[in-house]
Here is the input.
Amino acid sequence: MNSGRDLHLVGLSHKSAPVAVREKVALGGDDLKEALTGLAARPGVGEVMVVSTCNRVECYVYGESLEEARHFFLSRTGEAEGHLYERSGREAVRHLFRVAASLDSMVVGEPQILGQVKEAYGMAASAETAGTFVSRLCNRAFATAKRVRSETEIARGAGSVSQVAVELVEKIFGNLENRAVLLVGAGKMGALSAKALRELGADRILVTNRSPERAAALAAEIGAAAEPWDTLNSLLTLADVVIVSTGAPTYVITRELAAQVMKARRGRSICFIDLAVPRNVDPACGEQDNVYAYDIDDLQRVVSQTHAARAEEAIRAEAIVEAEVMAFAQERETRAALPVLAELRRHAEQIARAEAERTLAHLGGKLDEKGRKSVEAMAHAIVNKLLHGPTARLKEAAASGDSDLPGAAAELFGVGENENPRARSRPESDSGAAAHPESHR
Amino acid sequence: MSLLVLRFAAFFYAGAVTAYVLYFARPRHQALATVGQWLLAVAFLVQAAAIGLGCKEYGGAEFFGLRGGLVFMTWLAAGASLVVQRLYRIPAVGAFVTPLILVVLLPTLFLVKPDFPEVLPDAVRRPMLTVHIVTALLGVALFAMASLVAVMYLLQEREVKGKRFGALFSRLPSLNALDQLNQRLVRVGFVVYTVALLTGSGMAKVVWKSAWQWDPQQVSSLVIWMLYAAMVQLRHTGWHGRRFALLTIAAFGLVLGSMVTLNVLPAGFTRHAGDFSGARK
Here is the structure.
């Protein structure tokens, strides 16, 4: 761009680095705040933001080079070398927009990432390492994400197995208030789904496992109650959603057991979600009234349908991102041209004022107050008339993305390059540029 | 005059149907459901005006014929579905109920030949008769809505059990919500219908000097009442979901069947002209 500073990004994500490396660089809370202020204090760095989630760590620097951002990673672990990707300028802007719009996520269209980027921005803002550039950038990124969500169907459908499970349960039971979820077996997937169901309002999660120690451990981990294995029948009478993921090689929930349970439940609906391979729930269970049984393949099929649909939507989403990146760049160039204008005007007005004062001094006391005023007004009017055309043309050129003209104008009039607008005590231009001059220099 | 206003009401019903159906097709546009509900409310009020004018014109006799009965029943159904929307907020139900209301109302807009007795016997001109007619029609309207909700349940169950999570899956409400709504409609309908049955036999006592006559209409009404009573009872013994939905539909089939047969049989209508509404209980 037309100034020494630009946006630079160095990062690693689920696409470029294994979790072993990601977890070494990931950071949050006070550590992150400290790192932000540390980075911002380094030479050549204007503004900093770090996005750190379990799938990615990305350091955005608005400054002179991306070396400082690289340094941030390499100082955390040498292993990061070789896993980093680097982007600058428009590429970096596009990357952030794609991340916020969930186009770069492991599960494209997943909704959490936007919140995480917002959090990252909030962190940078509170550490005072995010200035006007990063604020403007992030606002645009959030707006882009919102557009993508509302104008495409990228976030529709369930993107993961546990999301599918949640959606199914929702369609069977509505909300899960006052309902119990039972985990049979202490598998990891089951725990994940149980957590998702808790978000839906299930206020009671029960865990049972053949080995009581593992049940107790998992229960403690997810805030559930461990129950002994031999009470399985009565637990099944109690729970409405049963997530099964044991290592057993046969059906744990047989057709007979399900029939027996349904009798005890007096026909109340029950939903079995079988995440185990080999399967633990006899698929014939689902043939009974008010018994719903799904295995991992059923859920996986929905997930792959969703992914196929999302891949199509992603094409439309990319177009939106592209348009927003262009708009952002254009807006930036418009703003970049404005300081030259402000400078030009300031310079011209200074001359006009000096000349008016000289004339008035020359005339001495021959003029009354009214006469003085009209001389000043005339000088001012000449400046306005002279600058009217160039001002309009400069604004136009900037808006159309032409960055040569502002530079040429600065050179022609001998303003801008060697003067620092920050030194000005007060903004004199009628344009808004003087309000945030530091972001353009 | 009342017919003109009624046609005006039908216009609003058509608007409500359009809004609800569009909402069902594009559930992301929540506003459509709100528009549908407002149009339904307006239609309900306009139809109320039409009914009021009709009473003035025909002295209430209109509602003893089939046409008047249908007009009155659609009005009650619209009112009931407004209440349901208010209580349960399941706009998808509107996409099923409003089209039915419109379909039932349409013939009444064009079949204007009076099908009701010119003069009502004084014996039946009692408040009890009004209560009887209103409750009978409201009961039938509630049973009709329950069976529509049961149809929605079966459609959704097919999606959920068939593991086919298509368009209906995302648009229809949860099975639990539909099952609950069905059950409540049946329960309220049963209470209302009970009142209709009691006032009906009260009227029979006035007209025939005996509360029970082995009249085909009385018999079928009693059978229907017992069926719904059994449904309310079965609910407590584990009849949920699919079976209950099927039963709701079957029971309403019986209601519909008895309405049609008894109206077609001249004996049912002419013999005791005036003591029962054309639309029957």
